[in-house]
Amino acid sequence: MTSKLVLDALERTGLGAVLARRECGEVPDDDAVVELLASADILALGAAADVARRRECSPEVRVFAPFAPAANAIVTVLGAREAARGTALLRGIAVLRLTGPIGQSIVLDFDVLGLEIAQVGLSFGATDLAGSIGSHKGLPIADDSKKVIKRREIAGFVERAGFRAVFVSNETSASPGDAPSVVGDHAQS
Amino acid sequence: MRLLSWGIMLSLETIAAKIDAGERLSFDDGVYLFRHPDWVAVGQLAHRDRTKRHADRAYFNRNMRLEVTNVCVASCLFCSFAKLKEGDPGAHTMRIEEAWRELEIRLHDPPSEIHIVNGLHPDLPFSYYEDLLGGFKRIKPDIVLKCFTAVEIHFFAELYGMSHEEVLTKLRAAGLDSLPGGGAEIFHPDVRTRISHDKATAEQYLAVHDVAHRLGMKTNATMLYGHIETFEHRVDHVLRLREQQDKSGGFQAFIPLAFHPDGNGMQHLPGPTGVDDLRTIAVSRLLLDNVDHIKAYWVSSTPKVAQIALRFGADDVDGTIVHETIYHAAGSQSPQGLTRDMLIRLIQEAGFMPVERDTYYGVVEELPRAVVPEAAVKVRDRNARKHLEVIS
Q1: Choosing among A120, A151, A158, which should be mutated to test the B contact, i.e. which has the most B CBs within 10 A?
Q2: Any CB–CB contact under 8 A between A46 and chain B?
């Protein structure tokens, strides 16, 4: 849900025009747009990215476990080098959302980024999460009861960000990035 | 928009208008802000307020945490730090010389403040605490001693048969300068009696701060959130602090503390999320119109969330800390200390001007803002943007 307060702010900052171009099916990544996004207030930018994400993508957040899907033209996986700082990562996610392909999947690796930051990223344009389901400290473990707790915990994080989690298992895949299978939403897990 | 029972329409716009008109937010406003689905918009309101107060300044200090004893007679459900008595596995009480040594070994790059929080030890003499403070002042006369929570002060009063004022007066004579905010937990009795029934009540906690403020001391206040409390309990807590501040005026900073569940009596609970951390900071900023500073304590929320919190109403990330043990006993994955340079970088990359402060928010040094904050350079670079190589 985007409040009128935010929509007004988007118009004031010029980000509303970027959203309007995306709504027409255009991918706005010209220099003027990039300059605008590079200097925009991070919360206004996040709000714009959130509007785009809600318009273009499913309200469900896929949680890939234990591997992230393979990156391609419409799937971007963020982890590792992006872990540097909180606000830089959020700006990066939002810029990817606003200048990338319509409906692209932006996957956040919560093993690397941390679940807290990954959760926040869902409100800045990211669509999906990936990582291992394990103990509270993020260490993969075999204990099924702990696995359920962790899955519920992740589902709770997603829900409290305003989305619904759908878990996608690729545990039996030969390698990270192989085709995953949907195993159910959090209510069934 | 929400229709309250007496027919008043609530919306972010009406709340923004109240803030602009200088009106105080109500209990219902606070609960509405906690429940509003557009939590980033709540953050925007808080950031607007924070910017009016502090422009683009973000504060930190060079402090040192010390817990001289973890022996504690209280049985708080959320605590992973305390041991019931001496001799229990993991119980420790520093010899005074050991505590002093922690400062002596850091004199080449000394902290400006020592922050001490302890368990409620039933057997130490009062002179232990007086000697502890006096020794630190002898080693470094200008060190600021921010020691003992209001819960500890109340415990001392009961244990040693003194009033709050007598305890504070004697400790001040020994070198105490300020009180930390710990021990507040959640004030509402429905929660407090369940999670920490055998230590100072909310009224006693506030009474200690009241006395401290009347004696001219500056103090902080906290709130432990993300366990069994509701949003209503959080708002009630913050409004009680606001009321106390109206009376005594000595709170410098409010510090929301995220509950960590590992190794304590509430480990079945998940703990708060990143969104919850940021929303709590934001709502606190908006409700606490009479407290200057909202602190994002990086140990409890992680440095990354603390950095983002600077855009959600916080203006302070606490300090270097050096060696924190209470949160780490509860599973905190944050480092036990950050260097001054790390804190400066954390603030600069968020687009703020780092200001090293003393305990009383006096400016020690103003540092430059980053020329280009965050990942702006890489965002402008299309090739790098594809790979999102942020500044590291």
Answers
A1: A120
A2: yes
Q: What is the phi-psi region of residue B228: left when phi exceeds 0, alpha when psi lies from -120 to 50, beta otherwise? A: alpha
- Check if A139 contacts B (Cβ < 8 Å): no
Instruction: Spell out which residues of chain A touch residue B41, defining contact as CB-CB under 8 Å.
Output: 2-3, 5-6, 47
Give dist(CA A22, CA A103) in Å, integer. 10
* Contact between B317 and B295 (Cβ < 8 Å): yes
Query: Which residues of A fall within a CB distance of 8 Å from B45?
Result: 5
Looking at residue B148, its amino acid is F
Residues A100-141: tens digit of each pLDDT: 999 999 999 888 888 888 999 999 999 999 988 864 443 333
Q: Which of A122, A118, A187 is nearest to A155 (CA)?
A: A187
* CA–CA gap between residue B25 and residue B27 (Å, rounded): 7
Contact of B315 with chain A, judged by CB distance below 8 Å, is answered with: no
CB < 8 Å to A78, chain B: 388
Q: What is the mean pLDDT of each run of 10 residues along chain B (392 residues)?
A: 52 92 96 94 95 96 93 86 83 95 92 95 97 98 98 98 98 98 96 92 98 98 95 98 98 95 76 92 98 93 90 93 63 69 89 95 91 53 45 28
Q: Which residues of B touch A120 (CB under 8 A)?
A: 274-275, 278, 305, 308
Task: Give the count of beta carbons closer than 10 Å to the beta carbon of residue B88.
Answer: 12
A/B interface, count of CB pairs below 8 Å: 161
Q: Could you tell me how far CA A183 lies from the centroid of its own chain?
A: 20
B321: alpha, beta or left, given left = phi > 0 and alpha = psi -120 to 50?
A: left
Q: DSSP H helical segments within chain B, as ranges?
A: 12-20, 27-35, 39-54, 96-104, 126-139, 150-160, 164-174, 189-195, 202-214, 231-248, 274-287, 298-301, 303-309, 326-329, 340-349, 376-380, 382-387
Give the DSSP H or E segment for A169. strand A164-169
Using the Cβ of B325 and the Cβ atoms of chain A, whether some distance falls under 8 Å is answered with no
Mutation pick from B44, B227, B280 vs chain A, by most beta carbons of A within 10 Å, is: B44
Instruction: Supply A136's token pair.
Output: 């509270």
Angle at B250 between CA B248 and CA B251, to 5 degrees: 115
d(CA B200, CA B198): 7
Please judge whether A91 and B13 are an interchain contact, meaning their C-beta atoms are less than 8 angstroms apart. no
Q: A84–B391: do the CB atoms touch at under 8 Å?
A: yes
Question: Could you tell me the strand order of the sheet in which A75-78 lies?
Answer: A75-78, A105-109, A128-130, A60-65, A164-169, A181-185
B305–A82 C-beta distance less than 8 A: no
B221 DSSP assignment? E
**In terms of CA atoms, which chain A residue is nearest residue B13?**
A5
Task: Report CA dihedral (A10, A14, A20, A21) to the nearest 10 degrees.
Answer: -140
Of A171 and A184, the structure prediction assigns the larger pLDDT to A171
User: Would you call A78 an interface residue with chain B, using a CB distance cutoff of 8 Å?
Assistant: yes
Least confidently predicted of A62-66, A144-148, B201-205:
A144-148
List CB contacts of B146: < 8 A, sequence separation 6 or more: B63, B113, B114, B115, B116, B177, B178, B179, B180, B220, B359
CB contact under 8 A, B276 and A160: yes
